[in-house]
Design brief:
Order of helices and strands: HHHHHHH
Structural class: mainly alpha
Helix content: 55-70%
Strand content: under 5%
Length: 129
């Protein structure tokens, strides 16, 4: 289950993108189901981000923290904006928390610094401080 949790937000964005006929009130995918439809390119970028998030989770579990910043920067290079940028920030927080738990503070700071440079929304930047 620990391998699935870090990627859940980005995976929800992809799996709930198509408009659904029935969405339970308060379900995790409700906000995504209400978003306007997305282009195929946007969906591809979200899927790639979800895959990268999963790769980062595996690297964390294997203790290969030296590769985490490079893999996370691949997510940042996608240039996700708007509501999708918030998903990137949430992913960064999950990665940073797991790095912090393992006492890899320098790598955690690198992830935060790279994310701060990449995001545009002041609200998202504020949540990283």
């Amino acid at each position: 289950m620990n391998r699935i949790v870090p990627a859940i937000i980005l995976l929800l964005a992809v799996s709930w993108v198509p408009a659904q006929q029935v969405v339970e009130r308060g379900s995790p995918g409700e906000e995504f189901a209400q978003r306007p439809s997305r282009s195929a390119e946007d969906l591809d970028r979200l899927r790639f981000a979800a895959s990268q998030d999963e790769i980062i989770t595996v690297l964390l579990e294997q203790g290969r923290v030296d590769q985490i910043v490079v893999e996370f920067e691949r997510i940042l290079q996608l240039g996700l904006k708007g509501e999708d940028e918030e998903l990137v920030v949430k992913s960064a927080w999950r990665v940073v928390e797991r790095l912090r738990e393992r006492r890899h503070f320098a790598v955690a700071h690198q992830v935060v610094d790279a994310t701060l440079e990449a995001v545009e929304s002041n609200q998202n930047k504020y949540s990283l401080y």
